[in-house]
From TrEMBL:
The keyword Cell membrane applies. Residues 2-230 form the ABC transporter domain. Its EC number is 7.6.2.9. The keyword Mitochondrion does not apply. It catalyses: a quaternary ammonium(out) + ATP + H2O = a quaternary ammonium(in) + ADP + phosphate + H(+). Keywords: ATP-binding, Cell membrane, Ion transport, Iron, Iron transport, Membrane, Nucleotide-binding, Transport. Coiled coil: none annotated. It is an enzyme of class 7 (translocase). This is Carnitine transport ATP-binding protein OpuCA. One of its GO terms (cellular component) is membrane. Pfam families: ABC_tran (PF00005).
Length: 250
């Protein structure tokens, strides 16, 4: 379990996050959802250890990791731009982080991750030869071989569209289920959050507007902001919402 207690962050006099309290269970997919500037990326970076919080604590499986260095937390992130090395082929990108951790995974496990993400035909390709969906899968494989305790994804679908986006959504869900890997996703897109996540944290102006399942948020929005932010988007993207929640929400 990941537990955040009273997390707050300011930049100069601006409050970015204030008294964030949250519990995420093992294997859950949780989306941090909100408009630009709401504080969701800052919260992701605090969990990762990339950004220092001003107050609060972070507990993971009962251990306080609030002041543990990022490299020692065992949390791994796939950045929005994938951060792949263009001069290396796909396979060398996948195993790059294992150079100093040779005993972390076996060759068999690496092959299993590659098969799981359907990357075998693309291993010798340079990054510039890959599609957006293939790059995303390489980035996911590179993260999985590091055996993360927690998977963080920053706008994982923003550069994708159509069938490719749906495929990556399915892969993320399969990863969480198959490896019982707690996954936290930053997104600005309500449709993505609703169709991908077990639970959604909606952030407004640095505070929590609502935390609940997609059904709870659709059926019982906690305030006018949630209702406006979510429901306006749902009318734009009707089909996926209809399939999940029924005609009255489409």
């Amino acid at each position: 379990m990941l537990k955040l207690q009273n997390i707050s962050k300011r930049y100069n006099e601006k409050v970015v996050l204030e008294n964030i309290n949250l519990e995420i269970e093992l294997g859950e997919i949780v989306s941090l959802l909100g408009p630009s500037g709401s504080g969701k990326t800052t919260l992701l970076n605090i969990i990762l250890g990339l950004t220092k919080m001003d107050q609060g604590s972070i507990l993971f499986n009962g251990h306080d990791v609030s002041y543990v260095a990022m490299k020692n937390r065992g949390f791994n992130i796939v950045f929005q731009d994938y951060a792949l090395f263009p001069h290396l082929n796909a396979y060398d990108n996948i195993v790059y982080g294992l150079k100093n951790k040779k005993n972390l995974v076996s060759e068999q496990e690496i092959r299993e991750y590659i098969e799981f993400l359907e990357l075998k035909p693309h291993l010798k390709k340079k990054i510039g030869e890959l599609s957006g969906g293939q790059k995303q899968r390489v980035a996911l494989a590179r993260t999985l071989v590091m055996k993360p305790k927690l998977l963080l994804l920053d706008e994982p679908l923003s550069a994708l569209d159509g069938v490719i986006k749906e495929s990556i959504k399915e892969r993320i869900q399969l990863i969480a289920r198959e490896f019982k890997l707690t996954t936290i996703i930053v997104t600005h897109d309500p449709e993505e959050a609703l169709t991908l996540s077990d639970k959604i944290l909606i952030i407004q102006n640095g505070g929590i507007s609502q935390f609940g399942t997609p059904q709870q948020i659709i059926q019982q929005p906690s305030n006018e902001f949630v209702k406006e932010f979510i429901l306006k988007q749902l009318h734009i993207k009707r089909q996926n919402i209809y399939q999940l929640f029924g005609e009255q929400y489409a």
